[in-house]
Every structure is written in structure tokens, then in C-alpha cells.
Design goal:
This protein is mainly α. The protein contains 4 helices and no strands.
């Protein structure tokens, strides 16, 4: 049994190759990862299912890729749709953008 915060490392014996999952088994596993990650992102994943999600992630590269993709999408959407996010017009870059002319500067040549 793993306690929260502990990491258990397990190495397969030398030369051991994990049998490949069939397409149906992989699809079932990825569907379950999708369900668990969605529940996690909704802040409703209880400790019982945390272990299941950890086991799925440890067992499959595809599951880890799906997890990372879902977390990244969630993060991107939260950042994009964050209503409290205000532009800091005092920042050097944004203040230059709001004051710059619309045409090319003297050092820039128009391109055809």
C-alpha cells in the first residue's frame, strides 16, 4: 500500500517486455483515464480513485500522454477564459504596443 507522497519504484526484470494492449483494451483504458482526469479537474476525485488513476498512468505511455494533454487543455482554457485577468498596460512591452505607430518604423523596410 502506498501512502500519499510516497513513490514506489518498480523495475521489470532485464529483458522483460510488457505485452502490447489490443486496440480495444487501450481504448477502454484511455476512456477510464478520461473519466478519472475529468473528475479530478472537477475537484471531485476521491482517494479511492486517485490510486486507480496513478496505476493507469504508471502502466501506459498513452495514458500519460492523454493525461498531460487534458491537463494542458484545462490550464489553457482556464487562462484564456479567466475573467479576472487584466492587461497590465504599465508593462514595458504592452505600453510600447499601445504607443507604436501603425506603419513601419524608420529601421524597418516595407516588404512586398
Amino acid at each position: 500500500m502506498c501512502l500519499k507522497g510516497e513513490h514506489v519504484s518498480y523495475k521489470e526484470p532485464f529483458g522483460y517486455q510488457k505485452p502490447a494492449l489490443s486496440d480495444q483494451e487501450l481504448a477502454t483504458k484511455l476512456d477510464r483515464v478520461d473519466e478519472l482526469v475529468s473528475t479530478l479537474l472537477d475537484d471531485e476525485l476521491d482517494d479511492t480513485y486517485v490510486g486507480e488513476l496513478e496505476a493507469l498512468l504508471l502502466d501506459s505511455t498513452e495514458a500519460r500522454s492523454q493525461y498531460i494533454g487534458m491537463i494542458q487543455l484545462h490550464t489553457d482554457l482556464m487562462e484564456f477564459y479567466n475573467p479576472s485577468k487584466q492587461l497590465d498596460l504599465d508593462s514595458p512591452v504592452l505600453s510600447q504596443l499601445t504607443q507604436s505607430p501603425t506603419g513601419p518604423t524608420s529601421t524597418q523596410q516595407p516588404t512586398d
